[in-house]
Amino acid sequence: MVESENRIYAIKTTAKQERTVADNIEKVTREQKDIHVMAVMVPEELKGYVLVESPDSIARIEQLVELIPHARAVVQGSTALSEVEHFLVPKPVVSGITEGTIVEIIAGPFKGEKAVVKRIDSGKEEITVELYESMVPIPITVRGDSVRVVERSEDIS
Questions:
Q1: What is the pLDDT of residues 67-86, one digit of tens each?
Q2: What residues have CB less than 8 Å from 143, skipping those under 6 apart?
Q3: CA distance linking residue 70 with residue 68, whole number of Å
Q4: d(Cα 147, Cα 157) in Å, to the nearest integer?
């Protein structure tokens, strides 16, 4: 086989089955030596899609999709790595959270409590909050992935 430039194909999947499809692609390509897949990527931001890097034609990727449960179709055309590179860089957990934002704590002893963000430490990916309905304002430091934004500070009038 002549090595050609790898292309990136988007495979449409059943909702919330992206990880399963990615695992199955790896299993099938191990058994089917004639289908070449260099990498599989499941970006968090791209719900319902799996990205596959391969030197093969789109027809070969369509054959691969037929062998995999929950894989629906290949999006027509391919793309270059430069167009999907931004998915490879992890975003900080605290990005999008600003001081004054109202959040709900989703983990830990204060789970379910609403709080106001007072300080953000993006280096440690932690935020300091004060519980919303507390009589005495006590600052609590929690990890950025332990909160869910309820209301952004721009929305508050």
A1: 999 999 999 998 888 888 88
A2: 93, 107, 125, 126
A3: 6
A4: 22
